[in-house]
Design goal:
The structure holds two protein chains of two kinds. By secondary structure, chain A is an all-alpha fold. Helices cover about 65% and strands about 0% of the residues of chain A. The radius of gyration of chain A is 23 Å and the shape is globular. Classes of the chains: A mainly alpha, B mainly alpha. Chains A and B meet through helix 4, helix 14, helix 15, strand 3 and helix 16 of A and helix 4, helix 16, helix 18, helix 19 and helix 20 of B.
Chain lengths: ~500, ~525
């Protein structure tokens, strides 16, 4: 017996050694493995659910496991990756996960319509809070866990994209040494060992935060399963809940637990500290962290005055909850901000776009990028006044290389252009202007709820096909980063051109 | 005729004995000159009213007298600094525009047409060529005031500094810097080696275009007087009209087509006009900026018309409305072709077509034209910056310069363009938030902010073409007025002045912000 198992192990090890290095199938294999793990977790959590649910989850999980084995056995990670390949691999892995998630919803019968299932999957994998399920509490436990799993894994994947891929493309917001600098662009991906080490450290911290969040929700009064799924949605900045949106945080204790979780998730504080290696002192000195605090404070102050009704403490709590939800791009709602004053609504949309801190799984502009842009604009202004001056562009004490600044600017240009195109497309599907503009920004920032028909009290389920497609596309674009998704097609073409073509070799010349 | 003005002014100035002492104050001296021009315009308006038989001749004339006296005193006692710093220039130009706006408000007050606050708004709107109005019913306003409104558009259209440089001989030294401070965008080619000659050519083209447009309108059926008034508004990109229903008053396709041509001519680079007038008509189509501008106008027109047709509108009417609306917004003019039955009212269009209008709202016209907003050239640069990042993913080590019209755009200029857009965006966001404080909703705020900063004066949401600025509360109108000035001065001037004031205040408080530290590497500029 032991001989046979050692034989299998040896053959597997030999196969691993023979693997061809290619990041695309390797990353897809990893994604399939995650899908299989999610299905397994959902089966365990929803074991007392219906037969169809379990069968559906098990079948998709087995197929995903098979795909993972095939891909990971034949292809391994390369030592060096060019940006085009990294972009294509990330996009492909995400698309694969969306497809697998759609299959889960269809196979379990939880969401029978393919269009609805695809939207729910895209929304989950993009960590937005948009859902076609009007009352999620009617879904089986296994499916609820699967929904939370899609967001949780997508949040972790987004974190890896932020930490590994975006700096690699030069638009990264990875903080090195207390946010005082940004990663240089153009460098190759870190070696496999370093990547694995980063991933492990991040995963450990991510798991710890999720466990702490689940405990907090448990203390606040949720059942264990719901507390776990809620914590998964909070720490990943996802926003799915197991109840209708406005009923999920109807208790002050739940709101406080949510506030702490969202603020931590949006800051990426512990993740950066543990994952990247900043010390506590360096993190405390971080300018980005101070800006994050200032945005939270300012948003809370304005919304407390112009937003909800009620006693002052209640208004402050709801305003803080809403601000934390928007800035961290989670998308939870304690009240329907669509009924608030015009000032509050404009502030809501502004907070939607600001986004979270650089080391977090949140979306949006992100605070470090906004700071770089502001510093850039201020520096050019000084040059206008003093044409011969040479003005350093700094964040904290460290200079920001001009190349990085230019790339970030280019990225933001694409972000705004994508938001505009999304708004026009949404309007073309028949939505009003307010809903289209706010919905496009919200989806691209991976928040979800917006204003108008997409306000927290609105019914996404009432939207018809085309607008769901646009929203889902925008959400995925925002989740993957605008630049990688837009560059995926030219990168794919470049990859195809770079690969050696199989041509018939000419016959060897006859030797004399 | 125009070329002689400088000599005449110089001869006139030589006759006046010099004062014992003249203080150096660039903004004040420029404002003094501008006040004299305004006084002359007010006299012309009074004469027009006298010819028309109105009863408030004394009101406009009194304003002319007051403004003229202040201007003469300023010119006598103040002079332009020989070597002003960039900060001084930004401050001077900002002061010039504020001072002229105050002068322009006087006739509205002296004739009793508007109160001081609304008169200032109307004047700012006129000189910045925005076209928003606080006059509820133009039918009861005297002819002299109406002519003065149109003149404010025409005077503001080319920029006060350009007018000053073309006429005042002593502005030759700092003129270029002043012009740069007034319109610090990516520069277009100069039309002549000497600055004053170039400015005079600009003025000549501007006058010629206005005359041509006026003649075209007269032939199309407006009559000569209305033709002149509408031409001043169309070519300058001003947007004021002597009728409540603006260009829709004539309900004539011919008139609208002439106005479209006039607005497009005003929004086209004057350098291209100059080259075309000197035997190179192909210069228009060789310019990528021109092609992009036409692409934006044509593309948005066709798509908006298609959306309208899809929602049940007739093809002819949809094309007519969308062409006029898109051109008036892209040229940052603001004339509308409202007709009975909802014709010309784009607020009745489907939401997608309305949102498409945000493209011309933001793009505006070409550099070196009378149009405002971001300008097509800047959008081209920004689009190329975005495209460069996409290409960099595929070719990470490639040198990817930005090329326009076959010429490489240097990185400092790219930086300037990007910084301008960032500031424009920041000021616009601040404007939307400020408007929302006074109860303006998001969509209306976005449209009105872009309209005020760009200079079209139109908006979206509740601020459609059938409304005027009176739908906003008085404080909100104040916000819009500041946005108009910010947009006309292309953001930088106002931001530099605000930063200077802030810095001075901080310095008084003992802080030392604003120091420029030299840096050996990673520098901007």
């Amino acid at each position: 017996m032991s001989g046979r198992s050692s034989k299998v192990r040896d053959r597997w090890a030999a196969a691993i050694r023979r693997r061809r290095p290619d990041v695309l199938p390797w990353l897809c294999g990893q994604a399939s493995l995650l899908v299989a793990a999610g299905c397994a977790a959902s089966v365990v959590a929803g074991f007392d659910g219906g037969t169809r649910t379990l069968a559906g989850l098990a079948s998709v999980g087995l197929v995903a496991l098979g795909v993972a084995v095939v891909l990971l056995r034949r292809w391994g990670p390369p030592r060096k990756v060019v940006p085009a390949d990294a972009v294509v691999a990330v996009v492909a892995a995400w698309v694969l996960t969306v497809v697998a998630s759609t299959a889960v919803y269809l196979a379990t019968g939880a969401i029978p319509a393919p269009g609805d299932a695809l939207f729910e999957s895209a929304s989950g994998c993009a960590t937005t809070a948009l859902t076609v399920v009007a009352d999620p509490s009617s879904l089986p436990d296994g499916v609820l866990v699967w929904r939370a799993w899609t967001q949780w894994t997508a949040g972790f994947g987004a974190l890896l994209v932020v930490v590994v891929v975006l700096p690699f493309l030069g638009v990264g917001v990875l903080r090195r040494r207390s946010g005082s600098g940004v990663a240089p662009g153009g460098a190759l991906l870190p070696g496999l060992r370093r990547l694995v080490a980063i991933r492990r450290r991040l995963l450990a911290t991510y798991l710890s935060l999720t466990a702490a969040g689940a405990l907090a929700y448990l203390v606040a009064g949720l059942a264990p399963l719901e507390a776990t799924t809620r914590a998964m949605a909070t720490i990943s900045t996802g926003g799915f809940t197991d109840r209708p949106a406005l009923a999920a945080f109807d208790e002050p204790a739940l709101q406080w637990a949510g506030i702490v979780g969202m603020v931590l998730a949006g800051s990426g504080l512990a993740l950066v500290w543990r994952g990247i290696g900043d010390t506590r002192e360096e993190v405390a000195r971080s300018r980005e962290l101070r800006t994050y605090g200032a945005v939270l404070a300012a948003g809370t102050a304005v919304l407390a005055v112009a937003g909800p009704d009620g006693a002052i403490l209640e208004r402050v709590r709801v305003a803080l909850f809403t601000t934390a939800s928007l800035v961290s791009t989670t998308g939870f709602a304690a009240e329907d901000w669509g009924t608030w004053s015009e000032l509050a609504q404009v502030v809501v949309v502004s907070l939607l776009a600001v986004g979270a801190m650089s080391g977090s799984p949140g979306g949006g502009f992100r605070i470090l990028r906004a700071r770089v842009l502001a510093a850039y604009a201020a520096a050019v202004l000084v040059v206008e006044e003093h044409p011969r001056a040479s003005v350093p562009l700094t964040l904290g004490d460290a200079p920001v290389p001009p190349d990085i600044t230019r790339r970030m600017v280019g990225h933001q240009v694409l972000w705004i252009a994508t938001a505009f195109v999304g708004a026009v497309l949404l309007a073309a599907t028949g939505l009003d202007g307010l809903t289209s503009v706010s919905g496009s920004i919200s989806a691209l920032a991976t928040v979800g709820p917006a204003l108008g028909e997409l306000s927290p009290a609105g019914e996404v389920a009432s939207l018809v096909g085309p607008d769901r497609i646009v929203l889902g596309g925008l959400a995925l674009t925002g989740r993957l980063g605008v630049l990688p998704l837009l560059a995926a097609v030219p990168a794919l073409v470049a990859r195809a051109q770079r690969r050696p073509r199989r041509r018939a070799l000419p016959p060897p010349a006859a030797r004399p | 005729m125009t070329l002689d003005v400088g000599r005449r002014v110089r001869a006139l100035a030589a006759r006046v004995p010099p004062p014992r002492r003249r203080w150096t104050h660039t903004g004040g001296a420029l404002a003094g000159w501008a006040y004299l021009v305004c006084a002359a315009g007010m006299v012309v308006s009074s004469l027009a009213e006298a010819v028309g038989g109105g009863g408030r001749l004394s009101g406009v004339l009194a304003a002319a007298l007051l403004v003229g006296l202040i201007g003469a005193a300023a010119l006598r006692w103040l002079r332009v600094a020989p070597e002003p710093t960039p900060t001084d220039l930004f401050g001077a130009v900002t002061l010039l525009w504020v001072a002229v706006s105050v002068a322009g408000a006087v006739p509205y007050v002296t004739t009793g047409t508007l109160g001081p606050y609304d008169a200032l708004f109307e004047s700012i709107s006129g000189f910045t060529c925005t076209g928003s109005t606080t006059i509820g019913d133009l039918a009861v306003v005297d002819d002299g005031v109406l002519v003065w409104r149109q003149l404010t558009n025409w005077i503001g259209g080319l920029g006060l500094v350009v007018l000053a440089v073309s006429i005042l001989p002593y502005l030759g030294v700092g003129g270029l810097s002043l012009m740069a401070a007034e319109a610090p965008g990516p520069g277009s080619d100069r039309m002549a080696p000497r600055l004053s000659a170039a400015a005079r050519r600009l003025l000549a083209i501007y006058t010629a275009l206005t005359i041509l447009c006026a003649l075209g309108l007269a032939i199309a059926g407006t009559g000569l007087a209305d033709g002149v008034l509408f031409a001043m508004s169309a070519v300058s990109g001003g947007g004021f009209a002597p009728y409540n229903d603006s260009a829709g008053h004539f309900d004539s396709v011919a008139v609208e087509l002439v106005l479209v041509a006039g607005m497009l001519a005003g929004a086209t680079s004057f350098v291209l006009h100059w080259r075309a007038a000197h035997g190179a008509p192909g210069a228009y189509l060789r310019s990528t900026q021109m092609r992009t501008f036409l692409l934006i106008v044509g593309g948005v027109t066709l798509v908006a018309a298609a959306v309208e047709v899809a929602s049940g509108a007739a093809v002819g009417g949809a094309l007519r409305d969308s062409l006029f609306t898109v051109v008036t917004i892209a040229a940052t003019c603001g004339l509308v072709n409202l007709r009975p039955g909802g014709g010309g009212d784009y607020s009745l269009w489907p939401a997608a077509a309305q949102l498409l209008l945000l493209i011309p709202f933001a793009s505006g016209g070409m550099t070196g034209s009378t149009a405002g907003a971001l300008k097509v050239l800047r959008l081209q640069v920004m689009a190329k910056v975005g495209r460069r990042e996409l290409r960099r993913i595929v070719h990470p080590r490639a040198a990817l310069p930005i090329v326009l019209d076959g010429r490489r755009v240097e990185e400092p200029i790219v930086s300037r363009v990007v910084a301008f857009v960032v500031w424009y965006f920041l000021v616009a966001v601040a404007g939307v938030i400020a408007l929302s404080v006074f109860g303006v909703d998001l969509l209306t705020g976005m449209g009105s902010t872009l309209g005020a900063m760009g200079g079209s004066g139109l908006g979206l949401g509740t601020a459609g073409p059938t409304t005027n600025a009176l739908i906003f509360d008085a404080p909100a109108r104040g916000v819009l007025a500041v946005l108009m000035l910010a947009g006309r001065l292309e953001v930088f001037a106002l931001v530099v002045v605000a930063a200077g004031v802030w810095r001075r205040a901080r310095r008084l408080g003992g802080s030392a912000v604003g120091r420029v530290r030299p840096a050996p590497r990673s520098a901007v500029g």
